[in-house]
């Protein structure tokens, strides 16, 4: 109830540890007696259970988060990128071919691709936009 009742302009730090520190500093009665580690865990649970989400690097109620927008786009299998871009958005068939290309390049001695840079790699090396939401997922790691 506390998180959902935050004012529209209210937000908490995006880091779970910093968020837990702020919540403890606010001396909220429902957190009385909990350690910093326990509050940190509560923050993580709030994120996992879609009570809180991220917006511009800050934690906000899930209903006002970019996380919710991405989940909606994923459910509708819509790209959550700028639709005015001339770069084609990857489909499942194209994704398979791109992954095969990247695997073959690595087998031939090329540099491995990190998950953290996979979207940039698809754009710069393969010329397609990897939009996880267009493929029905809110995160690339899903």
Structural key phrases:
142 residues, mainly alpha, 3-stranded antiparallel β-sheet, 5 helices, 42% helix
Q: Got a strand count?
A: 3
How are the strands ordered across the major sheet?
1-3-2
Distance between the termini: 29 Å
In N-to-C order, the SSE pattern is: EHHEEHHH
Rg estimate, integer Å: 19 Å
Q: Roughly what percent helix?
A: 40-55%
**Largest sheet report:** 3 strands, antiparallel
User: What would the average pLDDT be, to the nearest integer?
Assistant: 86
Strand content: 5-15%
Structural class: mainly alpha
Q: Would you identify the regions where 5 or more consecutive residues have pLDDT less than 50?
A: none
General form: elongated
Number of helices: 5
Describe this structure as you would to a colleague.
The model has no long low-confidence stretch (mean pLDDT 86). Helix 1 crosses helix 2 (36-48). The protein is 42% helix and 7% strand. The protein is mainly alpha-helical and 142 residues long.
Question: How are the SSEs ordered, and which strands pair?
Answer:
Blueprint: E1 12-13, H1 16-25, H2 36-48, E2 52-55, E3 58-61, H3 66-76, H4 92-107, H5 118-126
Antiparallel strand pairs: 1-3, 2-3
